[in-house]
Write a structure and sequence with these properties.
The chain is mostly beta strands. The chain has no helices and nine strands. It has strands spanning 12-13, 28-31, 50-55, 71-77, 85-88, 97-98, 111-122, 125-129, 137-144. The strands form two sheets. It has a six-stranded antiparallel β-barrel. It is globular.
Length: 164
Amino acid sequence: MSEGDDIRPGEVAVEAEPPGDASLRFIGRIRTPWRERAECPRQGRQDGPECRIEIFEPWIAALDGIEAFGTLEILYWLDRARRDLVRQSPRNDTRTRGTFALRSPVRPNPIGTAMVRLVRREGPRLVVRGLDCLDGTPLLDIKPDRCPYGPKATPEGAEVSAAP
């Protein structure tokens, strides 16, 4: 554990089984101006600083068409977060609550998510605004925002016709 991971009054940690029941593939890395957790915004703002999402090979081709979306959902692995608290006392808040009642990075499976504004694509990199994670955070996935002009899933059981 790193500096700043001390237990605050009211917090409860547990002895958890070592992780090992899931396999994730990091598809890129996130570049932000924040090096320490205390520097990170509590939640990203779409008018915040520009950040870069770097996509690794062979996943660069998966970005094709991404420019059509103004808002993206970014999922990332909070690799420097502790994973053992079941009750937490957030900084600047005197109330203690269960981990699942908070958006804290400290969770059993430290998956972060942010809705970001896509500023532009630069080849294998996306320039975005709205992130709230440390520089170097591993990227798990990118999804376009749900919107009325996005591709719709075919209803279950419906026939898909070939384009003319």
